[in-house]
């Protein structure tokens, strides 16, 4: 079950579950500028905007389906 930090953001573990990848993959994508995140000023935790994750997931799904057809 996903635990929202707010109605808008997810912590890295929950964002990883949402996308079906590991937290390490999210860090890799962030490092390589494929996905961005905000930082909680209190503890510097990564916070991923749910709407951005939804769009990112949809793009990945389309790319996967497109490459599968080829």
Automatic annotation (TrEMBL):
Residue intervals of the HTH merR-type domain: 9-60
SUPFAM superfamilies xref list: Putative DNA-binding domain
Name of the protein this chain belongs to: HTH merR-type domain-containing protein
Entries under PROSITE patterns matching the protein: HTH_MERR_2
Matching CDD domains: HTH_MerR-like (cd00592)
GO MF term set: DNA binding
Segments crossing the lipid bilayer: none
Highest taxon of the lineage: Bacteria
Any GO BP: regulation of DNA-templated transcription
Gene3D superfamilies found in the cross-reference section: 1.10.1660.10
One matching Pfam family: MerR
